Amino acid sequence: MTLQRPHETPPPGHVPLRQRLPLDWLGLVPFLAFVTLFLLAPTMYIVIGAFRSAGGGFTLDNIIGLNTASIRSAYWVSIKISLASASLGCLVGFLMAAAMTLGGLPKAVRGPLLTFSGVASNFAGVPLAFAFLATLGPIGLVTVFLKSNLGIDLRLLGFNILSFWGLTITYLFFQIPLMILIITPALDGLKREWREAAEILGATGPQYWRMVAFPILFPAILGTMALLFANAFGAVATAIALTGSSLNIVPILLFAQIRGDVLGDPHLGYALAFGMIVVTGIANTIYIVLRARSERWQK
After folding, report:
1. pLDDT tens, 153-166?
2. Are 235 and 96 spatial neighbours (Cβ–Cβ below 8 Å)?
3. Residue 135 sits in a domain of what CATH number?
């Protein structure tokens, strides 16, 4: 004898799972279309163009053409600027985020600082370049004030906004806020019980940070530094608008090759862009792996 389950009447408004899933995925269609049109399609076009000759055939000459002195120098300068801005951005951003979350700053500072960081981390391109030229340029506000009132000539001291350190300082405007936004959740994840346990065992403040907090935060810090490196390495509009052709870096060299000058080679430009995709892709992969490890440790 088998027992039959009574027929259960579905609640009002109930939609079977097979009918509900397509509607749930429908909300992702605009995002997927945007990613396909403005990220995947241009990336594939660049990758294909890097291995295509002027006649349309397959070739490795564009990739081999990257092994020239000027292009190697451009990549090296771009890597140094990205490393410098990422390192300084990580250091300053970490100290600011630690002071906000674990220090003695008033809680009222947190909201405005995170809001500003969200805006400043996306502030780049021509407006950012103009802001720094108007501030630290040859006739910028700070430059003129220091020279007129304090007798300090930044030019005589060797500072030039159109140089390596000038571009690095400009990048810090969006690197530091991005570090604050990313590292703040990791700092919030440090449990108070860990510090209390360390203090009970006789650990000092520096010992707690060296033996407990920093090892936990290290994957997040290193991963964020990789993300900041990729962020600076791929910054094109800010570098072009600020330095023009006075600094030999990959974005400026790429712009000169693709825009169609007499000596321009679009396919070599695609190869330059392909190299940038590889470098930033490696940096972003490192960030994703280390970020996942950091979140797993904090759980």
Report:
1. 888 888 888 889 99
2. no
3. 1.10.3720.10
